[in-house]
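Entry 14. Ran structure prediction on the chain below.
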Amino acid sequence: MRKRFCPALCGIVLAFLLALGAAPLQAAQEPTELVENAITSVFETLRNDEQRARAEPEFVLGVIEREIIPLIDVDGMARLILARHWRDASAEQRDRFTVAFRQTLLNAYGVRLADYLDNRVVVIPRRSRQDDRMAVVATEIEVGRGQPNVLVNYRLRPVDGAWRVFDVEAEGLSFVGNFRSHFNTEINRSGLDALIQRLEAGDRALIEESLDNAVSEGGGSGG
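Output, structure tokens:
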């Protein structure tokens, strides 16, 4: 099962990183256009300096920080992941969790973008939809090498007049949902402070365990 879902799990994290693009936030950009331009721009940036992207992890992380992070609703995503624990957390705990989760995720998976430069991502307008409150942009990652394409949906919502990504689904597996479920278990077991401390220490196992749980539990198909 891991072999089947590996592209999907990579899709959740890598699509989260790719979704979000290099173009400045503009209220006039439609979600489909925003995602398509973003993916194209990030891939082009890394492909134009592919040797450096493969040899220097800090270069890839710099591209992500500069071109991707501004288009994520980071605070909103953190709230959704912690769910009820967000309401009970102090302002300091909320800030620490948001910063530590983002940094651990980037350190664990950001540099792996260089391994996927040969993949092609295609936006599928006919499967995309939007209203005033939310948009879903459907895409496929063409994995190649005889492996099936990975279906990826980007979920966006307006934040301060511009569309921002708040969740990504790959093959029915939700980025936010997976981490919410796993982190809830960790918090119930050891408490929120213990979870934050593990993230601040760069404990990548927290990220990997969440995705491993998604593999063992299986996932849906299609967008």
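The chain has one domain: 2-217. Will compare against last week's run tomorrow.
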